[in-house]
Design a protein that fits this description.
single chain; about 350 residues; alpha/beta; Rossmann fold; 2 domains; 5-stranded mixed sheet; 3-stranded parallel sheet; 13 strands; about 15% strand; globular; disordered N terminus; Bact_iron-sidero_bind
Length: about 350
């Protein structure tokens, strides 16, 4: 049976359908644009509907909007995998999710979400599919436009979390925002303690090999291009406390770009990472690199890099860190790489 609050949401959503504007333009995982939406009236409408279903609490999202959300949300929809993994790390699963492909999670965790319907792809957000799931909370990345956010708020309370922009490298902050939205902030301490303990272990274990080597992190998402991560990137925030020292060239090339990320042409690869003693490259959690990185590995300019010639090239996991699962995976790969360098 559909309760009154669900009928009210459906009515509001139907009104928006009649008015048009059903297609939401999709954004890639690397989109760094920010949402400018602050319409408090839409938030209040979603909050009123939620209140009819049970206890609520008011939280402030990344954009500074006060959002009335369920105290114990049961039907959460995510619009991007970054929020999906955050939920999984917190021991939860969404009822609808953004795009998901095999390898984004280890198999033991993937089983919790692999059959969850996908309601958001690069082509756009499927509003009707989201409404049909009758969510009580929608987690929205901060690249969604204000006009599109209004339609989501007509379906359920919608909380904006940080995905791109100047704070992009703060993946911990993103997970914390999701935890706050779903009232699970108390679980962050345990996750963070496990991460810090692992970092401390590796720092002590590999101090000698880290002392005199310089590292660079690269990937490729488009042919003839090289994607760089500096020490200010998401991976930099994970590996830096252990004592991993980035090469001077990669830090100078990336500079103060948002998220510590920058893309150069293949012709510039030697100027960007030629001084690195060790190269790390991005993979998913099934140890698979991108197809374009595999192509890059056949390029003479790549093969002539110092680290490649020395055989010091290792996988490091995701360059876009979605949560603690990704972080711990990268630390395991770092451990294996440093053990190999020590042998």
């Amino acid at each position: 049976m559909i309760n009154n609050s669900s009928r009210r949401r459906a009515l509001k959503f139907a009104t928006l359908l009649t008015a048009g504007a059903l297609v939401i333009t999709g954004c890639s995982a690397e989109d760094n644009s920010t949402t400018q939406a602050t319409e408090s009236s839409s938030n209040e409408a979603g909050g009123e509907d939620s209140a009819a279903q049970g206890d609520t609490r008011t939280v402030t999202d990344y954009e500074g909007n006060e959002v009335e959300v369920p105290s114990d949300p049961q039907r959460v929809v995510t619009l991007h995998f970054a929020a999906t993994e955050a939920l999984v790390d917190l021991g939860l699963a969404p009822v609808g999710q953004g795009g998901y492909t095999e390898g984004l999670l280890p198999s033991e965790k993937a089983k919790d979400i692999e059959n969850v319907p996908q309601v958001s792809e690069r082509e756009g957000i499927e509003l009707e599919a989201i409404a049909a799931l009758e969510p009580d909370l929608i987690l929205v990345p901060n690249y969604v436009e204000a006009v599109d956010l209004e339609q989501l708020r007509a379906i359920a309370p919608s909380y904006i979390y940080m995905h791109g922009g100047q704070d992009r490298a703060d993946w911990r902050g993103r997970v914390g925002q999701v935890a706050d939205a779903v009232n699970q902030a108390d679980k962050i301490d345990e996750l963070e303690t496990a991460l810090e303990d692992r970092q401390a272990e590796l720092k002590e274990k590999h101090a000698d090999v880290l002392a005199d080597r310089r590292f660079a992190v690269i990937n490729s998402y488009n042919e003839q291009e090289v994607d760089l991560n500096s020490d200010a990137s998401m991976l930099g925030n994970i590996l830096g406390p252990i004592g991993v020292q980035w090469s001077d060239q990669i830090n100078e090339t990336v500079g103060d770009e948002d998220g510590g990320e920058f893309t150069v042409s293949l012709e510039e690869i030697n100027n960007a990472v030629g001084d690195a003693d060790v190269l790390f490259y991005g993979t998913n959690l099934a140890f698979e690199p991108t197809e374009t990185f595999e192509i890059l590995q056949e390029e003479p300019l790549y093969k002539n890099l110092k680290a490649v010639e020395d055989g010091n090239v290792y996988p490091i996991g995701k360059m876009t860190v979605a949560g603690y699962t990704d972080a711990m995976f990268s630390l395991d790969l770092l451990d294996e790489a440093l053990e190999d360098l020590e042998s």
